[in-house]
Amino acid sequence: MTGAASASAQAQPAPASTYYGRTNTYSIFSAYSGDSSHMLLGTAENRKLLEFGVAYGRKLFRNRVVNWQYHGELLPVALESDPEVQRTFYQVTPVVATYIDPPTLQANACVAASGSYSDSYTFPDGTVTYSGTEIDRCLRRWTIGEGISPIGFQWNFMPRHKLQPFLISHGGYMYSTRPIPTTYAGSFNFTFDGGAGIEVFRSKTRSICAEYRYHHISNHNTASDNPGIDNGLFQLTYSFGR
Predict the structure, then answer these.
(1) 1 Cβ partners below 8 Å, 6+ apart?
(2) pLDDT of residue 12
(3) Other CB atoms within 10 Å distance of the CB of residue 219
(4) Which residue of 127, 133, 160, 240 has the smallest Cβ count within 10 Å?
(5) Structural domains in the chain?
């Protein structure tokens, strides 16, 4: 009888987990910010950011209050947009002509403007006055890059519930095909972010996240210009694992 009872006890299925979460988490995500400003550290204005990436998470510690996870992100596509100013001169004297300057980046937000000009220059054979109308147009330049944030953590609260608030933070780098956010800034930049969101579990191991992050890009004075970029980033993530 004892042996039969022991065998019956061993055959009982393990109790189902009361936690919503995973030991290993795999995610795909997209993130967007339509503007930048001096939120904390960066001073470059009116920069847009669009990201597509994947992430990996690993459970480090979990109890009924918090699920603490390692979290790293890989960005194969990171698009950053800078405002440009293109200046056009419609000259009327001494001859009628049109001159268009190449677009130039600026740290501040672009402001369209127009006005008249009149400048006199003295030459050996006399004085010549150049006059006309000047128009500044706002353009936008997109730059593609890639990045990785290998250092990161996520803290999910109330892990026994389908709806879990969380905090998240990362540190890493971003490399772009040309300098951002100004002409004399660097192509290699450091990044860090921190934010909060809500994770909604559709099952024990599959979930959707919506979050908001403070995101900073800076070359840490490794280039001659370092205005830095502060973005408020909105991110949507789909996660699965076991």
Answers:
(1) none
(2) 57
(3) 22
(4) 127
(5) 18-82+141-241 (2.40.160.20), 83-140 (no CATH)
